[in-house]
Design brief:
alpha+beta, 9 strands, globular, binds cobalt (II) ion
Length: 134
């Protein structure tokens, strides 16, 4: 069921500094910041040859990553995103096996314009998992 690693998302306290670090120290192909008000984040996409990195910074007071940055003030890995062919079939398969789907369980349109769902980190060894249907 699980497909390719689509991206690793890293929450950062200073988006400009983090983007510059990837651009200069790592020589990465770093995009421009993009506000995603529906998700409460500003995102910088970094294209790697085999996957993407997303730098996440809070946008607005109710950003879902405010709490994460309070617990991890220097930033940290926020989630990993795996590709699936059929997100509703994947959700039902996971639920039948005891995994908890966050929110109301209905796929939302994610930062890439594709349907996504998030799985409870306690069911995946402390790692928040995003599923994205290509
Ligand atoms: Co993501």
């Amino acid at each position: 069921m699980i497909g390719r690693l689509n991206h690793v998302a890293i929450a950062v306290p200073d988006l400009e500094a983090a983007a510059n670090r990837y651009r200069t120290a790592l020589g990465a192909n770093v995009g421009e910041p993009r506000n995603e008000p529906d998700h409460g984040v500003t995102v910088v996409f970094i294209e790697l040859p085999n996957t993407k990195i997303e730098l996440l910074h809070p946008l607005g007071e109710n950003s879902p990553i405010n709490g994460f940055l309070e617990r991890n003030p220097s930033g940290g890995i926020h989630h990993v995103c795996y590709e699936v062919d059929d997100i509703v079939a994947a959700r039902d398969h996971l639920r039948e096996r005891g995994a908890r789907v966050l929110g109301d369980g209905e796929p939302k349109i994610g930062a890439h314009g594709k349907p996504v769902l998030f799985l409870h980190p306690k069911d995946f060894n402390g790692c928040l998992v995003e599923l994205e249907q290509l």
